[in-house]
Amino acid sequence: MEPKFPEFKPVELADRGFLHELFWKYQPETSELNFTNVFIWREHYHIQWSMHNQFLLIACKSEAGNCFALPPLGPGNRAQVSRELLQWMRENRGDKDPSIQRADQRLKDELEPAGLFLIEPAREHFDYLYRSENLIKLSGNKYHAKKNHLNKFRKTYQFSYQPLTTRLVDECLEVAELWCEAKRCHEDLDLMDEARAVREILLNFEALKLQAGVIVVNDRVEAFALGEMLNQNTAVVHIEKANPQIPQAFVVINQQFAEHEFSQVPFINREQDLGDDGLRRAKESYHPLRLVEKFRIRLK
């Protein structure tokens, strides 16, 4: 039975059916509003959920201890339920300035006329949206370098794209570990938490009903990616990793995953850059169609 506000419960795999239906009904544009992201990051953000009348509420806490929520989801205008949620977090969770984060344009448009909220853009959380066709074909001068990397890989290695199976999960975990060693994850708590999220998604990819694939070179997995449909016209890529000792492998898994899993989907959301300069340059190098804006919302 679902929890009733003000009671909250931690996110569990068993909640997928109920919560996925609510997310899908909303047809989100932003990458956070799906069960997979909520599930794999549940420990990092201490994620809990509740139902308030017909609204889904998702409460989180940052590593610094600040309380925030994801956008409430439900029918009709959400100004009142957003106000109630923020007031409840302030009064019951000890945060003087709680917020709704990763809010989309739809929620901003609903809340602005009420005049009760401070709304500001959160650039580090903007999602990168691409045309699937561009990621697959890599046509034109702007993708010339990517196409060269792809062609070099094809000339250098005998490789295949394969759907992920449980038999290959351990090899994917080894690739993730290589990536983590290269990034010195043990020195960065955020990267350690990302490593845990990668492990969660790999160990549960079947139960999460994800589309997932790997690049195999010489009978070894050297790259992998996992994603799913975010809305009727857009796929979202949750996790993509490659052996850092094979630089072109990142380009190959990006292109092959899009081609094999999402060629019939118009758009692909490749999530945010979190303010990381290197990640931002990498995402911009694929020339997004546009950025999906997100906002931080607080009470005045």
Structure characterization notes:
With 300 residues, the chain is α+β, with helices and mostly antiparallel strands. The chain folds into 2 domains: 9-126, Aminopeptidase; 127-271, Gcn5-related N-acetyltransferase (GNAT) (Aminopeptidase), CATH 3.40.630.30. The chain has 10 helices and 14 strands. Helix 6 (144-156) packs across helix 9 (248-261) and helix 7 (169-183) runs antiparallel to helix 8 (189-203). The radius of gyration is 20 Å and the shape is globular. The model has no long low-confidence stretch (mean pLDDT 96).
Query: Pairing-aware structural class of the strands and helices?
Result: alpha+beta
Strand content: 25-35%
Q: How many beta-strand segments?
A: 14
Biggest sheet: strands side by side, in what order? 1-2-3-4-5-14-6
- What does the overall shape look like? globular
CATH class of the largest domain: Alpha Beta
The CATH architecture of the largest domain can be given as 3-Layer(aba) Sandwich
Please provide the ordered H/E string of secondary-structure elements: EHHEEEHEHEEHHEHHEEEHEHEE
Q: What count of structural domains?
A: 2
Report the end-to-end length measured between terminal Cα atoms: 35 Å
What is the number of helices?
10
Share in helix: 25-40%
Overall pLDDT, averaged?
A: 96
Name of the CATH superfamily of the largest domain: Gcn5-related N-acetyltransferase (GNAT)
Biggest sheet layout: 7 strands, mixed
User: What is the C-alpha radius of gyration, as a whole number of Å?
Assistant: 20 Å
Low-confidence stretches: none
Q: Predict the CATH topology of the largest domain.
A: Aminopeptidase
